[in-house]
Design a protein that fits this description.
Shape: globular
Helix content: 25-40%
Number of strands: 6
Radius of gyration: 18 Å
Structural class: alpha/beta
Amino acid sequence: MKKYLIYLMMAAAVMAFGACSPEDENEPRKPEIETPETPDDGGEETPDNPDEPQQPGDDPDAPTGNRKILVAYFSWGGTTQRMAQEIARQTGADIFRIEPVIPYPTEYTPCTEVALEEKNNNARPAIAATVENWADYDTVFIGCPVWWWTTPMIICTFAESYDFKGKTVVPFCTYAATYRDETLARIVELTPDAAHLTGEGLTSGRINEQNISSWLKEIGLIE
């Protein structure tokens, strides 16, 4: 019986700390930080410059209309970056990586600790660069991983740094298990002056051309 109880306790600890499969719906205690991985996870070739995705060219899923589109994203381990790149490739958008002045720790546990401290303090981490020609963009995708059940605080910094009047915001996020909808809703909440299109959240294994194309067609940004 004692051995059985020990096994039960070990199993409970694994569940509590988010060490579950990406599709598991158990509530994590640690932030859903992207697991460190190479941006080309899934076997695709990594472009020489990851922030300059391929252009749509003659792709039948080319963007509709004459919108000027920006994909702004924060990525820690590369998962959100992959999603952002695919969105930009299919829409012909410009891309802007939201990078902190002080980089987050590269190891998982120290990063979770910094992320939690920022959340508890309602911090606004400084961003290293600014978007050029902001006024030119009509549609802005804003994306991030789920950290501590919501957006990383640097997304608050980004949203508060620009005037979103007259723009359309499209939220997106990546997550390991849960809090997809809460994170998408938070991006909408942070940009109250903008119009909004339905966002999308994907786990790492579901980031692919087909899933993103279906979503972009549903919201009318590609044909």
